TrEMBL record:
Top-rank taxon, per record: Bacteria
Organism, scientific name: Gluconobacter kondonii
Keywords in alphabetical order: ATP-binding, Nucleotide-binding
SUPFAM superfamilies: P-loop containing nucleoside triphosphate hydrolases
Keyword Nucleotide-binding found: yes
PANTHER family tied to this protein: HELICASE MJ1565-RELATED
Name of the protein in question: ATP-binding protein
GO molecular function, a single term: ATP binding
Length: 479
């Protein structure tokens, strides 16, 4: 049994926590501000730093000092997108890195989105990376609130869903949730109910004392004892702690938070007149610029081009002999320009199609010269790495026939696999699959391989040297 000393009991004996049992049963910590929750979490993290991978969701930047002593990676989310945080969550599991997700510098809305994206990335990691990890969430009521607050419903749903996955379904994936909250009444019940271990600190509100007593199996009349707990004292219960409620005083820690509590500092004697000059110093106000007259937005650019063409035809009818017809090479070139555009891998199909229509109209072609389905197949063919000459080959037409039986969103993934198998190249990696599917989530892109195998268009094989894919019915196979 791997146990760590959490603190001392009422009789001075060591109170231990069984780490393997904790990883299987999860932990809930509750206590008012100043009760010692952060101290308890720091003690737990320090004692297990060399035993298990740790992930700390830190809304106040209190735990970044762990990096100095234990080598934790600190991820500041200020300059990170949701997609990069989701990918970082997957990579953290793959490399078994202990990290602190520092949310201190961002507002509440972004805190929810960042925590939700990062936790979802960890949750979506492939089965091969389901190593045991201790996931500690401080101020959990912010990320799994009972009711919506100042943040948007979308951000709240993202964060609450990630927290629910962590506590309800995380055990099978090796994720052990340790959540700390100031008030149980503000924490979503479906998140709190999944914990089997409890450490209840000082609290004063009747509703919180009653819930804490219920969780510990104590009588209601004993609930008022939570008011008498000193800072750093907690009532412990659970299979990883004690079979009966037990008082524990948390032991000392090595690291300390950058934040400090309030300290009394003597006031410097300053006369009221000097203070008046300082506080009421005039502020230079700038006269705002006059607002410009609001103008109606310009019409759609494609509509302008169509109107211009209609006017030209009315003034100077173009002879039919010189009308511009669609040339396959010209269409290929236009679609290739759309593919080469910045960020085109992740733009919606409708946006890319509108870009193509605009380019076609500039060249004098009809905006409907290529219908959407044909555009999507040509787009996927170019993204797959196929050149113009080979795209008309009988072999590739067979691959396009199979792709036409699939939903549009996975046709690009299939054609990428088909081109790679046709040339007997190494199977595309997760990043290439994600770009072909138009997503930043590597886990979501990998799931398309399983979907294509269920549709019986590919055969998927994992080997010690990597992944191999064979195209059903065509006899092509990646290296």
């Amino acid at each position: 049994m791997t146990s760590i000393v959490l603190g001392q009991g009422r009789d001075g004996s060591d109170t231990c926590i069984d780490l393997p049992e904790l990883l299987a049963t999860r932990l809930l910590v509750q206590g008012n501000s100043g009760s010692g929750k952060s101290h308890l979490l720091r003690r737990l993290l320090e004692q297990t730093a060399t035993l298990v991978q740790q992930v700390m969701i830190d809304p106040e930047g209190d735990f970044v000092t762990l990096a100095d002593h234990y080598g934790h990676l600190v991820i500041d989310v200020e300059d990170q997108s949701e997609a990069s945080l989701r990918a970082a969550g997957e990579r953290v599991r793959a490399h078994r890195a202990s990290v602190v997700l520092n949310l201190e510098q961002v507002e509440a809305e972004m805190q929810l989105r960042a925590a939700g994206a990062f936790l979802n990335g960890m949750f979506e990691a492939p089965r091969a990376h389901w190593y045991p990890a201790l996931v500690v969430v401080d101020e959990a009521q912010l990320f799994a609130p009972v009711a919506s607050g100042d943040t948007s419903d979308e951000a709240r749903r993202l964060s609450l869903g990630a927290m629910t996955n962590l506590m309800c379904r995380g055990r099978k994936r090796g994720l052990a949730g340790v959540i700390a909250t100031q008030r149980l009444a503000k924490l979503a019940k479906n998140v709190a109910a999944e914990a089997s271990n409890f450490l209840m600190g000082r609290t004063f509100l009747d509703i919180d004392m009653a819930r804490a007593a219920d969780l510990l199996g104590m009588e209601r009349r004993a609930a008022e004892s939570f008011r008498d707990l000193a800072r750093g004292q907690f009532m412990a219960l659970g299979p990883a702690l004690s079979r009966r409620p037990k008082l524990v005083a948390i032991g000392p820690v090595t690291t300390a938070s950058h934040a400090t509590g309030p300290v009394l500092v003597p006031l410097e004697p300053v006369s009221a007149e000097d203070l008046r000059d300082i506080i009421l110093e005039p502020v230079h106000e700038f006269t705002p610029r006059a607002r410009r007259e609001t103008r109606p937005p310009p019409p759609d650019l494609l509509a302008q081009l169509d109107a211009y063409g209609a006017e030209r035809e009315a003034e100077e009818p173009v002879p039919s002999a010189v009308s511009v017809e669609a040339d396959p090479d010209q269409l290929w070139s236009l679609v290739a320009e759309v593919v080469a555009g910045e960020g085109s891998d992740y733009k919606p199909l409708a946006t890319l199609y509108q870009d193509f229509q605009l380019r076609a109209r500039i060249q004098g072609l009809s905006r409907n010269v290529l219908e959407l389905g044909s555009f999507n197949r040509m787009l996927a063919t170019i993204r797959a790495g196929m050149d113009r000459e080979r795209s008309d080959s009988e072999e590739w037409k067979q691959a396009q026939t199979v792709a036409a039986t699939l939903p549009e969103d996975v046709q690009g993934v299939f054609l990428l696999l088909a081109r790679t198998a046709l040339d007997a190249e190494v199977c595309p990696d997760d990043d290439a699959l994600a770009r072909a599917y138009g997503t930043h989530s590597l886990g979501r892109a990998r799931r398309q391989l399983n979907y294509l195998e269920e549709r019986e268009v590919i055969v998927l094989q994992d080997t010690p040297l990597g992944r191999r894919v064979a195209i059903v019915g065509l006899g092509w196979q990646t290296a």
